[in-house]
Design a protein that fits this description.
With 286 residues, this protein is an alpha/beta fold. Helices cover 34% and strands 17% of the residues. Strands 5-4-1-12-13-14 form a six-stranded parallel sheet. A four-stranded parallel sheet has the order 6-7-8-11. The radius of gyration is 20 Å and the shape is globular. The chain starts with 11 loop residues before the first strand and ends in a 19-residue tail after the last helix. 42% of the residues are buried.
């Protein structure tokens, strides 16, 4: 059967946070209302972020402060993805390179004895020293799986200062051990797949919504989900670079997503995202 010719109604939404519903501490115009409407219309929601330096509680508090109501179970971060993956391991013993607060979230998974089974690398700028780095190096060399929560090389503070990011530490461990890290952040298809699985729906019944074509749209395509890019956040810069336009649909903002999904369910869609219409039909405005 030709998959592109089959209708798959969208039941679950994987929604990017930064640049899509929330931008520099302020909710995107219409985002709280759109989120409430999507939830009221029966969609199962997951909110995705590549930030691995904050706890779930801190992120939820920031969203709440902007008027965005998100349930704890609806937030899916790289830390959540790693915990989800490791929960299926029979006897995990995790060495976590990240803040003490985030490392504590892996403590219940450290149930095994003997050597470490996994080395999980996140934001470790405040705890990393050479003994810890060498401990991780030795654990991977001894057989532990190396997991990266993201692969950013550097990050900039609002005042322009630059710092090494998680990806640089991961690269050092990869180079030293000769092993390749398993990525559990965007744009990894595994990350998006775990997020989709947490909704209980097949990826074919899922839409990924975000401002970044290189992470959100790419991750959505990797799992066979519908993709929607919004023209907020990173969109303008990517449009100028020519990297935008990779999603099946583009709308001005998250506020336009409920109308788009309504039109898709009304008129049908293909996996390419194109509306199924009779010849000569006028596309609905969204």
């Amino acid at each position: 059967m030709d998959v592109d010719a089959v209708d798959y109604p969208v039941r679950a939404l994987l929604i990017d946070i930064n640049g899509t519903v929330f931008d520099h501490g302020i909710a995107v115009d219409g985002a709280p209302e759109a989120v409430d409407r999507l939830r009221d219309e029966g969609y199962t929601l997951r909110f995705l972020t590549n930030t691995e330096s904050r706890t779930v509680e801190d992120t939820l508090e920031s969203l709440s402060g902007c008027g965005l109501h998100v349930e704890p179970a609806e937030l899916f971060t790289p830390v959540v993805a790693a915990r989800t993956l490791l929960a299926d391991h029979p006897r995990p013993r995790v060495l976590a390179l990240m803040s003490a607060e985030l490392s504590a979230t892996f403590a219940p998974l450290d149930a095994g004895t003997g050597g470490h089974t996994h080395v999980v690398v996140g934001d470790c700028q405040h705890v990393l020293d050479y003994p810890l780095l060498n401990r991780a190096f030795r654990a991977v060399r001894a057989g532990a799986q190396l997991i990266a929560l993201q692969r950013g090389a550097l990050y900039r503070t609002p005042d322009g200062q630059e710092f090494l990011d998680t990806g640089a530490i991961v690269a050092a461990l990869e180079y030293g051990t000769g092993r390749t890290a398993r990525l559990l952040g965007k744009p990894s298809g595994e990350y998006f797949g775990l997020a989709a699985a947490s909704t209980g729906f097949d990826p074919r019944h899922t839409a990924v919504i975000g401002d970044d074509a290189t992470t959100d749209a790419a991750g959505g395509r990797a799992i066979g989900a519908m993709t929607i890019q919004v023209r907020t956040g990173k969109y303008a810069g990517q449009a100028a670079e020519g990297t935008a336009g990779r999603a099946a649909h583009t709308v001005d903002s998250i506020a336009d997503v409920p109308a788009l999904l309504h039109a898709l369910h009304r008129d049908g869609f293909t996996r390419s995202g194109a509306l199924r219409q009779a010849p000569g039909a006028v596309p609905p405005e969204v």
